[in-house]
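User: Second chain of the day. Same drill as before.
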Amino acid sequence: MSHTFNTINDRPWLKESHRKRSNRSVEIGIQAIDLLIQNGEPVTYSNIAEISKKIDPKGKGIHPNTIRTNEQLYDYYKQHSLTYKQKENSSNKKSTLNTNSDEFDFRRIKSNRNIDNTHNKYMKLSKKELVQRLILAEKFIVDNQKRWIVNYFEKFK
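Assistant: Same format as last time:
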């Protein structure tokens, strides 16, 4: 007596339920975002989830992941969230530090430099830039080591 379905889409009762829940999420989410804007509070996932519980007649609210997964609500969130816009702008920035081998000269590094400033400079680099800098440093070390060995053995000839 098992009920098998040919495809996943043969569940019309689920489609209707999903549509209702999705619409409910959009309505409550938009109301929550509008209320946050009215109150001058930042539009974040956690703030929306918190306010939505107060707005929702059932008291359930919406989960922060619902904002990400519901396309309509996510688009509305992106339009009104300053934190999303800040993150988007920061990811679009290009690094001002030089990472090309022609532009970075390891011979100019001083042994008495301020380590805190150096640490802060490296913390601002992306992972990709750090990897490239590390590869360049390794290449510089290997080249200098070869040069030193050749010079050292030429002294004995």
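The chain is about 65% helix and 0% strand.

User: Great, on to the next one.
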